[in-house]
Design a protein that fits this description.
Strand content: under 5%
Radius of gyration: 19 Å
């Protein structure tokens, strides 16, 4: 495979993956989580269906990994073919800044929100297995997890907006 074809493939994976990742993060942070919270048990059923049974969480994680790896691959190739000179350009610095925002978003989205989601799922299962309505303590715990999840996802979404803005504008700066 020649250099041009490799860069085209990496660029397509990066752009298409970034569109899906950033768009989904924005949708989750500002629309799905608030809707889930306001609809109670029905919202929990919907989120479970979407994230677990429909495997959105898996596809989002896979897309995040492919987007980050393809971006790092392109960055490394541009440094390699320029004997390191490209790294000192404004374009490289802006892309690097966007990459850092994206990688931090990936860490928060993958690890922090994953941990919170696991806690919410375990609490939901405990409530469901009891056959009783949630206790006041369980309601408070679930609300705390939901507050944290919403905050983390909004930070992820903002970081991804920063990454997208950097990627879109780097060539022109």
């Amino acid at each position: 495979m020649n250099e041009a074809m490799l860069m085209i493939i990496l660029r397509l994976v990066h752009i298409l993956g970034g569109i899906f990742w950033a768009g989904t993060a924005l949708l989750i942070a500002w629309f799905l989580i608030p809707a889930h919270r306001s609809t109670g048990a029905a919202g929990m059923t919907f989120i479970s269906e979407l994230m677990i049974r429909r495997k959105l969480r898996f596809y989002l994680t896979l897309t995040m990994i492919l987007t980050i790896l393809s971006g790092l691959g392109m960055y490394a190739r541009l440094i390699a073919v320029s004997d390191g000179q490209w790294a000192s350009t404004t374009m490289a610095k802006v892309l690097g800044f966007g990459a850092i925002a994206g990688i931090i978003a990936g860490g928060l989205g993958g690890f922090v929100s994953g941990s919170i989601a696991a806690k919410m799922a375990a609490l939901g299962k405990t409530i469901q297995d009891s056959g009783q309505p949630p206790t006041e303590t369980q309601n408070v715990q679930m609300e705390t997890h939901q507050d944290t999840m919403q905050s983390v996802m909004r930070i992820v979404a903002v970081l991804l907006l920063i990454a997208v803005a950097a990627m879109a504008s780097a060539r022109y700066l």
